[in-house]
Structure formats: C-alpha cells, structure tokens
Write a structure and sequence with these properties.
Layout (H helix, E strand, L loop, with lengths): L37 H12 L36 H17 L3 H15 L3 H21 L12 H5 L15 H14 L7 H8 L58 H5 L25 H6 L15 H8 L33 E2 L5 E2 L1 H4 L21 H7 L5 H21 L16 H15 L4 H16 L35 H14 L4 H17 L1 H9 L3 H10 L14 H13 L1 H6 L8 H5 L9 H20 L6 H4 L1 H12 L6 H19 L12 H6 L2 H17 L4 H25 L5 H16 L2 H19 L6 H27 L18 H13 L2 H4 L14 H15 L6 H12 L7 H14 L2 H5 L19 H8 L28 H7 L15 H7 L5 H5 L8 H21 L9 H13 L17 H11 L16 H9 L5 H15 L4 H5 L11 H10 L20 H4 L6 H13 L4 H15 L1 H4 L5 H14 L2 H8 L20 H13 L5 H8 L1
C-alpha cells in the first residue's frame, strides 16, 4: 500500500467532475458494514472495477521553474522555457545579482544586509559558503565522471537554494557579503508564490541552518529515490548548537528536526541526497483557511510570521481544535482556562500546605515548582500548574483506586517519613525537611494511618504499605533495634480507654493490622525483603510496650507463621528455599522479655530452635556467620526463658546436642565472642534455677546434682581459657571485657548455688575458687581486665557531664553501662567467695581488689547528675536502662563495703541512704535487704554512742520495727507487678512478671502506686502517708497481730528516723540526698493533718501536741528558719513536692485551705502549726494563697505570733519582692495593720508592702501615685503613732541581704528628705507624717 502513494503534479490536467457514489436504485450511498475495515472495502472495490494495483512508480514531472521573461514578481500560469543547462541558468542569476548590487547605494546595501541578517541570522554567510563549496565540489565530480546522470535531487528546496548561492568572487570572506545578501533578496523576489511566504523561506534554509533543528519524526512531502549508494552525514555539533528547553508539554508534539549542513568531508565521500522539503501541518482544516486575494499575493510578501501553534493540551489549542468559531477568552469557555498562576514568591516557604515534593520525597523550592517540565510526572494533581505534590495531594492520592498511582504515592510517603525521622536527630538535621521541623510527630501519625489502610492490599500497594510501616516504626528510630529490657512507651493505664502517651504507635489499630501481617507472612504474599521488614515491624512493636507484645502473641497463627516462614525453613536448604532469619528469634526473645505469660506461651515453639543447636556452625548447611548468629540467638532465647524459671529441663532432654555444642565453643574453631557470652549467660541462668529447684516452673525442672554431674564449673574454666586465647589474638577489647563479665557471673552463680546446696555451705568449692582467683586477679589476665575497666569507666564518667545532645550522650551512657557491668560482675564474684557464717567485716579479702579506686568511683557515681537527667523531659524513654548496671554496681559495692574492716557505721549508713535513692525498678529485693540491715543498726546503743538524748519510750514498742513494714512497702508498693532484677536470683525466678523496665514517663506518672523506686529524698517519712490513709493502706491490712503501735508512736519513730538520715548524710557531706526545706515543711504538715476529719473529743490525743513529736519536728525545721547561719537556696516548691502524695488531680491549694481551716479549728495558737502557715505566702506562690490567708482568714492573724527569726524560709527576700500590687491584698494588709493585732513576722511583711506602695523611693517608679496618697492618708489618720512611725521610717534594699527589724525601721536622711518633699506636694492634711519626717 505504501508504494501506491505517490505525489502528483499540481499542474496536471483538468479535474473531472465528482461522481455520485450512491446506488443506482435509490440514490443513497450503499451500506458500509463496520465489521469490514477500510482496507478490506478498498480491495473489494478494486476487484469490482477490475483495476490492478500499480506495480511501477509513475514518472514525476519537474515542477515549474522561475520565469525568465517577466518582470519582478511576475508569475504567470504558463510554464516558461527552462535554460539550456543548469550552469547557464545559474550564470544568468549571478549576472542579475551583480547588476542589482552595483546599482545600489552604500546605504541600501547596508540596509539589505541588516534585513537579511535579521531574518536569517548571523550565520547566513557560513550557510552560503557551504552551499557554494558543495556546488563546486559536485561540479568537479560531474566533470570527472561525464557518464553520471543529472542530480537526483527531488523537490523545490535544492532548485531554489542554488540561485542564492554566492559566486566565488562574492563570498563573505572576500568582503562582498552585500552581493550575497542581494542575491538572496533577488531570489526571494523571483520565487514562486508557494515559496515566498516566510515559512517557506525558513524551510528552504533549514537543511543548512544549524540553529533550526528538525524533528526526527517529521516526514518530507515527497519520497526521494532509493539509491543504494546514498549515505547520511551528520555535522559536528558544538555546545552553541544545543538548546535546552526549560519545559515541555504534557504530551509533547512532534517538532521538526533539521539535519545540520554536511561538511566538506561528508560531501567528498559521495553524493548527498536530499530527504525532501518539510511542510508543517496546520492544526485547522484547509477549508477553514481563507484564500488570499491573488493580486495582493502577487504584489505583497508577508515578512511577519504568524503566531506559533499553541501547545497541545493548552486551553487555546482546545479552543482552536474543537471550538474554532468561538472567540478567545469567551466566558462560555472559562471552564477550559488554566487556574490562575500563583506567584511562587508569594507562597509561604514554611507552610506545609504550600510545600511540594517530587517523587523522591525531596521538597521542591517554590520558585522552581512552576518552571519544572511537565513530563516528569509531577503535575498529576488537581492544581496542575505547579510541579510537585503537596502533603494533601499525596494523602489524597494514597487512597486512589488506581493501584499504580496509589503505590507510587505510598512509596512517596515512605520516603518523606524517612527524611522526617532522620531530621529529628541533631546529627542528621541536614537530611531532614527543614520546612516541617516541629511537625514530625503529627505527620507520622497521618502517614501511619495511610499505610494502615493499605496494609491488607496485595501487590505493589501492599508492599508500599509495608515500606511505610517500616519507615514510620522501625526506621523512625533505627537506633532502637538492639535495645532490650525496657519499654519505649507507656502501657495503657488501668481503667483508661486510650493510651496515656502521644506517640503514634499506641494509636495503631492492632486488631486489624496484626491479622493482616499474619496472613501476609503465612501466604508469603510479598517478596522476601518485605516479609523481613514485617518481622522488623513486629519486633519494634513488641519493644514498644508489654501490651503490644501480648497483642502480637495473642494474634491467631501469627507466631506459627513466623516460625514456619523464618525459622523452620527446609533442611538442607536449596537454591530457591529461604534461609532462616535470626531477627525472628530476636522477636521471640523480645516477646518473652515482656511478660511471664508470653514466655509460657512460647515454650512449645521453643523446641524448633534445637535444630540450630544440634549442628555446630562448622558443619551447618547454612553459611558459617548465619549459623553462628542463629545459635547465639537461640541460646539467648533459652536464657530469657530460664530467667522465669521456665524450660530449664531442655538441657536434660537434649544434653548430647548441648554437650557437642559446648565442645565446639571451647574449641579453636569458635571465634565468636557473642557465642561464648551467650553460652556463659545460659549456664548462669540454669545454675540459678538449679540452686533452688522449688522455685522453677514446674518445680525440680533442673537439679543441683545435675549441675555438679555435668561439671559446669570446669566448663566455665574452659570458657575462660578460650576467652584468654581470643583476647590475645585480637578482637574488640571492650567486647572481650563483656565476655569476661558473663564468665565471672557464671562462676559466681556456681559458688552461690554451692553455698545453698553444697556441704558445709559450699566451703570446698569456695576454697578451690579462692585459690585460683588470687593468682588470676593479682598478676593474671583477669586483674588486668578489671583494672582496665575501672580506668576506662572513670574516664567515661568524667566526660559524661552535659545532657543537651542525647544523640551523643546516650552512646557515652551505653559505654558506662557496659563497663559498669564488668566491674559489678567482678564484685559479685568477690562476694560469692566470702564465707556465709557472718555479715560483718572480714579479716582478709578472698582475692585482691583495688578498693580505693572502687570507693572513689562509687562516690562519683552516686553524686553524678545523670540520675536526674535520665528523667528529664528531653531524655529518651530508655535512658534509665543504661543506669541499671550502675545501680547494681552501687548495690554490690555497698555489700563489699559492709565486709571491709575500715568502714564505720556512720559511713556505711550514709552509703546505704545514698544508694537507696539510686535504685531503679527491679532492684526492690536489694533495697529491702539494705533497709533491713539499716534497721538493725539503729538501736539505743547507736544513739548512746553519739550522745543523742532519745526518750526511752521510743523503744517500748520495738523502735524501728514499728515503721519497718511501711518503709519496705515504700520500696515495692505493688504486689502483682514484679520486675526482674538485673541478675536473676533463686527467689526472683518464681516471682517476676516481666523482665523489662517501664518507660521513664511511666515511672514519673505512676511513682508511688506501682513503682516505689527510685526513692525520693523524703522516703523516710512514708509511714506518715500510711497513717493519713490508714483506711486504704495495704500495709495495715498485712500487719501481724502483734503490731499494736499508736499513731503517736509511729510519728515519733518516723521523725526520729528522718532526723538520723539527715544527720548522717550531713556529716558525710551528702546534703544533696537529704530532704530540702519544702519536703521537710510538707512532711511536718502531714503530722498536723493527721487530725483532719477526726473526732476532736480530747485535745490530749492530738499527735502534734505530743512533746516528743513537737521536739522532733522543731529539730527538723530549725536549719530552715531565718535564724540559721546561712540562707539555703530555693530548690523546689511545695506544689511540686505535694504532687507525690496528693497526685496530679488534687492541687496543693486545696490541701492548704484544709490546713488553714484545721488551724482555725484546733490549733489554739500552736506556734509550730502557725509557722507552717507562712511558706505559701511568699511572693513566688500564686496570689490565691495570700488572698485566702489575709482576706478569708483575717480573724486568725492575731494568733500567728511567729518571731521574725523563727520564720521558716531559706531567704526572706522571697516574702518581700516583688512588691504586692493586688488592691485586695494591699487592703487586707492595711486593715490588719490598722487594727493593731499583728505581731512578729506577719506584721513586718504587711508594713513592708504598705510602705513600698507609698514611698516613691521604694516603689522605684511613679506609678500608683493615687493609691500611695490614699494609703498614706489612711495610715496617718487611723494608725497609732507606732504604726505611723514604722511606715514613715521603713527602708529596704532590693539587692543583697534584707534589712530585718528593727534595722528596717531606721530610714536614712536622704530617704527622709525625698519623702518630705513628696508629702509636701500632696494635697490634704498630713501633719502627723510631716512632723515625724522633720523630727
């Protein structure tokens, strides 16, 4: 069919009249069935007419040539005779050009030259030169080969371009460029009509113009002849020849691409064949183009090209194609107009709604969003005129019904989430999205919600949903993957309907999400990489909280699917089968750490891990690193189960595989420190279970006789030898220290078990160990390990001082935790070697330790600011996890210090009171043991040796035994939730409910209800809390029948013990661990509040009236009175202290109103009771306290007779400054002073604020002038002479020590002069005041 398409001559014979194609019968066209194609109907028509298809290309007649005889511009309908030859024709044109140029003036030549340069550009000279050179070269070749036929060039372009080529005499290089330009002009004047349009001129020059490329998809109007020797040549392209378009339409149109002019080298290689002349297709039908008047065309050439065709898809293009009869910008076509362009500079750069992203998640600057190409795929949104997608666009398209579009947007959300997560950390701030700083948490929730909606989909949509969850859950905090033993988020509080945290993870719909993950893993519906991401997601959720871990374990078929897909893979593995994933075993370990119930549920699938123990890594079908990781992960999982006293029977059931594995670990083939550490930790856990088989579940799951029979003590020694070999041959020094820590703990566990089960308290085992340990720690390798750990620990401890950048601080804290574990393990081994007969000082240590270094190190640890920083608002929720080894180290050192002869009672008690405040949840057993030892030391002999006059009645009911149950309960208030200790004990394995610490926020919010640790400095007053809540106190419900102490007796011992704690700490210069002023004040207020809502039948029964109780309270409050030698800095306030007792729902102001009301009803001017009313009246507390005291209870003011020196305050200036400005309180001051009933401290405070509101030298400004005059007149008119004198002569300083009475009532001469002048300007009779000032 293509061969039948030929070009016909435009000037051929006359056209025949159109024939009627209708039927001869009806006159209507015959029916055309749509089932037949146009080609089929065409073939049938040819058969019916009997016309055969042309087999030869018809001869194409040459088109019309330029006439010779007419005048300029004359075009006739006849074909003029052609020149005799092409050379004659060209010579004739040259002569005419010369004559025309010669007849021009210089100005005309210059004008013609400028016109041509303006139309054709500055490169027209090069074009003409190349055309001339090509023509001359072709002429020479024709002369050399006379047998060659005429040029095969077809079309008009070569015939027209030849006449305008300059002669050899008039080249631009010769300076006669005017002749060449005139030749071009003359040729255009004589060109046929179809070539005289500027577009035709442009097409004539396009084959040789380097600045007008033609589209490779454009087609010529004529087909060139098919010559076998024809070749295409391309010119060398320079950077100036390349043009980069700034933008492209959504569907780019085919644009012309012109080949650059051939070079001399190209033309010398053969004939250059023209591909024809390109004519652009007009977008409108030919019938719609008006035909110009012939005369106008003959006499006029349009030199201004029409406007370019509009881009396809634009509103103008749509109008021209579909609505050609409608004027541009017609209101009826407003719907096709583009939305109004928005100036990018006007968009707020920080607005998340204006921010646009490309498909990689990178923000697009506003100034580029309107200029980027539209073919990049960034305009598929509603706005359409700006590149990129806003967050609203992305969230909307993430719910698209088109899977590919939805998957693309979900992937974009995942990439944005990755950048948001990295930008949260200071170290990666540059990788974040600065425009969205501060919005990460909220956006994370929205992105997670989008992923949750798509998690149930299959294919790419489901895969991208998994990617979103991985980025928002795992990648958001990628540094948390290896952290175990702590919850990252607070679990649901009892009785609440939602999470108490603002984190995004607790808001996940786990009831819907977890079954979807289970199905995806069970069906393997996603690629293996995404399935592995699902395991990581589950692990991170299990880390987040114990509630989530239980939800994961409770999801139907989830754990079996994980085991079948990632653990129980085919054996032996084939090339196509998946390999086991150690991350799946880590997930099981995390689930077991969460709770005892989880660990019990994982006992059945634990058997499948034996496949990794039965075969050593050296003979495993899996790669050696993978086999080693699988084995170490399995051992770590078994150790977690053993910490609950579970699954320890497996060592009996599968003893042979474990024995072979042990041989491999001790051999030279094992080079994994992690594997040695995991096996040593598992041996330790099993020996703890065997120490008391009654505590395992089920009981007698493993026996101590089996431990002895398996010679695990010898095995530990073999592991120590292997560790020495690994340390000598290289490896991480710190990693080797961690291995030694696990080996020391395993050896200590054996000695502790032998003490309980061995003959004579394990004396034989202990002596054997001591004999080797002396050499090992004296000059051996293990002594070097301990000394190196101590030195590194002290260095790291001194570097850990500021807690601003937690990304850096947490790594240093992790280093401290690792080194602290090693040191504490050595101390545990030392304690296991001590004889069990007594707990007193030893005559000689079992083996040498650097005791001086240990003492200094322990003191620095206890006083380090890290303990308060880990509970700060900016601290990570898991920071306190790394302080757990430090608390264990302090407990171990406290036990070591108790056995050292140089430690006195006062020193050890101070150490004990300090360590008790550094314990963390899980250390309850150690804290209770310390408290019991402390109670044994506080005896009558203890006070007599220190010359303390303590009434004997204190010991009538048992002394410390009265309050010991309350103190023990303050350490462990919960009876159900037991957190496992840092090291398992025979008692803990049957009691613990979880092996993970609560998050820092949970400790802060539930302190006192579920978690007693860490203790606050006022922990010694906790028995008073139980007295105030005796009806609901769990301690009173569990007290033995022999306990019969009264409230007064409990209060006496409590206050005495509190005094002992404070005195011991102060003597050892540990004041920071003692109660501050506010804690002491609130503790004494509790004593008075014991009478709240109690029947008042006999005042002698009131606890605060007891002489001993009053004396002990005065002893506690004396250091905080104004008569103390030096002021104490303000460290806290009563409102913050009261929260620990009242809870967040009861404000301290309510407690204070009850306190004042109780004073009003029963105090009878009790001086200490009255003194406790004053602290909330200082100016750093809210105005309501002063209004309530001075206004609502003004009638009790006369009973508050506290001397100035007995006022409870650390700095009296807190009552004086800033000056009172409330009119109601000032009026109360004035009324109380004028009544003359105020005395002592309260009178001084009232006089101070009245005088400062009157005198300009005390006010410091000129405000309140009117109120000052009124106050002065009221004092002068109604006050007695003493009151007026005190107000008139009052003076005070705002900086430095405050002036107290009577020095504050002695105004200097300058102040009197200023006040006298001010009074003189006041209108009215103030004679009394003036008389005093002039006296």
């Amino acid at each position: 069919m293509i061969g039948s398409v030929v070009e016909r001559s435009t000037g051929s014979g006359t056209h025949s009249a159109p024939r009627n194609g209708g039927s001869g019968k009806t006159g209507f066209p015959s029916v055309q069935h749509r089932s037949k194609s146009a080609f089929a109907r065409g073939r049938e028509e040819l058969k019916r007419k009997g016309t055969d298809r042309p087999t030869e290309v018809p001869i194409v007649k040459p088109s019309q040539a330029i006439g010779q005889g007419g005048g300029e511009g004359n075009v006739t309908g006849k074909v003029p005779p052609q020149p005799a030859s092409e050379e004659d024709w060209r010579r004739q044109i040259d002569e005419e050009n010369k004559k025309r140029v010669e007849s021009m003036t210089d100005e005309e030549r210059e004008q013609e030259r400028q016109d041509i340069l303006e139309k054709f550009g500055s490169g027209v000279g090069d074009i003409l030169r190349k055309a001339r050179e090509a023509r001359e070269r072709k002429s020479r070749e024709t002369e050399a080969t006379p047998e060659a036929g005429p040029s095969s060039t077809i079309g008009l372009a070569p015939k027209v371009s030849d006449p305008i080529a300059p002669s050899s005499e008039n080249t631009p290089e010769g300076g006669a460029v005017e002749d060449s330009l005139s030749a071009v002009k003359a040729a255009l004047q004589r060109a046929p009509l179809e070539l005289r349009h500027p577009r035709a001129v442009h097409s004539i020059l396009s084959p040789v113009s380097p600045s007008t490329p033609r589209s490779a998809l454009s087609r010529p109007n004529t087909r060139p002849s098919s010559r076998a020797d024809r070749r295409l040549r391309f010119a060398d392209v320079t950077p100036q020849d390349v043009y980069v378009y700034e933008s492209a339409p959504p569907s780019p149109k085919k644009r012309p691409l012109a080949l650059l002019a051939p070079t001399d080298a190209d033309q010398s290689g053969g004939d250059i064949v023209s591909l024809g002349q390109w004519k652009p297709r007009t977008p409108l039908q030919a019938s719609t183009i008006p035909v110009p008047d012939q005369e106008m065309v003959d006499t006029e050439v349009d030199t201004n090209p029409p406007s370019e065709d509009p881009e396809e898809g634009t509103p103008e293009d749509i109008r021209r194609r579909f609505f050609p009869g409608v004027a541009p910008h017609d209101p009826s076509l407003e719907w096709i107009e583009s939305s109004a362009e928005v100036d990018p500079a006007s968009l707020p750069s920080t607005s998340s709604n204006a921010l646009r992203f490309d498909l990689t998640g990178t923000p697009i600057p506003p100034e580029l969003s309107s200029t980027l190409p539209t073919h990049l795929g960034l305009h598929h949104h509603a706005e359409g005129s700006h590149a990129g997608y806003t967050l609203d666009d992305i969230f909307l398209l993430s719910r698209s019904t088109v899977p590919a579009q939805r998957a693309s947007m979900l992937g974009l959300l995942a990439r944005i989430a990755r950048k948001l997560g990295k930008g949260r950390r200071a170290a990666h701030r540059d990788e974040g999205i600065k425009e969205l700083f501060g919005q990460e948490t909220e956006l994370r929730k929205r992105i997670v919600a989008s992923g949750a909606e798509a998690i149930g989909e299959r294919g790419s949509v489901g895969a991208m949903a998994v990617e979103i969850f991985w980025e928002c859950i795992v990648g958001w905090d990628d540094n948390l993957a290896d952290i175990e033993g702590v919850e990252f988020s607070e679990s649901l509080s009892e009785g609440s309907e939602g999470p108490v945290t603002s984190d995004a993870l607790p808001s996940l719909p786990l009831d819907y999400l977890l079954p979807q993950i289970s199905d995806a893993i069970g069906l393997a519906a996603l690629p293996s990489a995404f399935l592995s991401q699902l395991v990581d997601i589950l692990h991170r959720l299990a880390q987040n909280s114990n509630d989530m871990a239980e939800s994961i374990l409770g999801t139907a078929d989830l754990i079996p699917n994980i085991i079948r897909t990632f653990i129980a893979t085919p054996l032996p593995p084939s090339e196509s089968s998946p390999l086991p994933n150690p991350s799946a075993i880590q997930l099981l370990t995390t689930l077991a750490l969460a709770s005892r119930s989880n660990a019990s549920a994982l006992l059945e699938p634990a058997d499948v891990l034996l496949r990794f123990i039965a075969t050593s890594p050296s003979s495993s079908p899996f790669p050696h690193p993978l086999a080693t990781s699988l084995l170490a992960s399995s051992l770590e999982f078994y150790a977690v189960l053993a910490s609950y006293g579970l699954y320890s029977h497996i060592v009996t059931t599968a003893w042979e595989p474990f024995a072979r594995m042990s041989v491999f670990i001790q051999s030279s083939e094992c080079k994994s420190s992690r594997l040695i550490q995991a096996w040593a930790s598992l041996l330790e856990a099993w020996m703890v279970c065997a120490a008391d088989p009654h505590e395992t579940t089920p009981s007698h799951d493993i026996l101590w006789s089996q431990v002895v029979g398996w010679a695990w003590a010898t095995e530990v020694s073999g592991l120590q030898s292997r560790s020495i070999e690994l340390s000598v041959h290289g490896g991480s020094e710190r990693r080797n220290w961690e291995v030694w820590a696990s080996l020391w703990r395993a050896e200590a566990a054996f000695l502790e078990g032998a003490r309980l089960n061995g003959v004579r308290g394990g004396e034989e085992e202990r002596l054997a160990a001591v004999g080797t340990l002396k050499d090992r720690f004296n000059d051996g390798f293990e002594g070097q390990v301990l000394l190196g750990s101590l030195q590194s620990f002290n260095t790291a401890l001194h570097q850990q001082t500021s807690y601003v950048d937690w990304d850096v601080d947490i790594h240093q804290l992790k280093t401290l935790a690792s080194l602290g574990t090693t040191i504490a393990s050595a101390l545990r081994l030392w304690l296991a070697c001590t004889p069990p007969s007594s707990n007193g000082p030893l005559t000689s240590p079992p083996f040498p330790l650097p005791f001086a270094l240990l003492a200094d190190m322990s003191a620095e640890i206890a006083k380090h600011p890290i303990w308060s920083a880990i509970y700060g608002e900016n601290a990570p929720p898991y920071a306190h996890l790394y302080c757990r080894p430090l608390a264990t180290l302090l407990l171990c050192y406290l036990r070591v210090s108790r056995r050292m002869p140089a430690t006195g009672q006062d020193l050890w008690l101070a150490q004990a009171f300090t360590v008790l405040q550094r314990l963390l949840p899980g250390d309850e057993a150690g804290g209770r043991r310390v408290l019991k030892e402390v109670a044994k030391l506080i005896t009558p002999e203890f006070f007599r040796s220190r010359s303390w006059n303590i009434p004997p009645v204190i010991w009538d009911k048992g002394g410390m035994d009265i309050i010991l149950p309350f103190l023990l309960h303050s350490i462990a208030p919960s009876e159900k939730d037991h957190i496992g200790p840092f090291w398992a004990t025979p008692r803990s394995i049957s009691q613990v409910s979880t092996q993970r610490l609560p998050s820092a926020s949970a400790i802060r919010s539930r302190k006192g209800s579920l978690y007693g640790l860490p203790l606050s400095p006022d922990w010694c007053l906790s028995p008073l809390d139980h007295l105030l809540r005796s009806g609901s106190s769990p301690v009173f419900k569990k007290l033995p029948s022999s306990w019969d102490a009264s409230e007064t007796e409990v209060a006496r011992v409590t206050l005495l013990f509190t005094r002992v704690v404070r005195e011991v700490l102060i003597r050892q210069r540990l004041l920071q661990f003692s109660m501050n002023r506010e804690e002491t004040i609130f503790g004494c207020m509790k004593v008075f509040m014991l009478e709240h809502e109690q029947p008042q039948n006999d005042s002698s029964e009131e606890v605060f009236r007891d002489v001993i109780v009053t004396a002990f309270m005065n002893d506690l409050l004396d250091p905080f009175t104004l008569s103390a030698s030096s002021p104490i800095p303000i460290q806290s306030n009563l409102e913050a202290v009261a929260v620990r007792f009242l809870g967040p729902s009861t404000p301290f102001f309510q407690y204070y109103t009850d306190f004042i009301a109780l004073y009003d009803s029963i105090s009878f001017s009790h001086p200490l009771f009255a003194a406790l009313l004053l602290p909330p009246l200082s100016m750093r507390y809210a105005l309501d306290y002063r209004k309530h005291f001075w206004g609502d209870f003004s009638h009790v003011l006369k009973t508050v007779r506290i001397p100035v020196d007995r006022a409870i305050t650390g700095d009296v200036r807190e009552y004086l400054w800033p000056i009172e400005s409330d009119s109601q309180v000032i009026g109360s001051y004035l009324g109380a002073v004028l009544k003359g009933s105020l005395q002592g401290f309260v009178r001084w405070i009232a006089i101070h604020h009245l005088a400062c509101n009157i005198w300009p030298d005390l006010r410091g400004n000129h405000e309140g002038e009117e109120r000052a005059v009124k106050l002065l007149r009221a004092v002068g008119d109604q006050g007695d002479i003493q009151t007026v004198r005190e107000v008139v002569f009052y003076q005070q300083v705002s900086e430095g020590p405050a002036l107290i009475p009577p020095h504050c009532f002695e105004a200097d001469v300058d102040s009197r002069k200023v006040r006298e002048e001010w009074v003189g300007r006041v209108e009215g009779d103030l004679a009394k005041v003036l008389t005093l000032l002039r006296s």
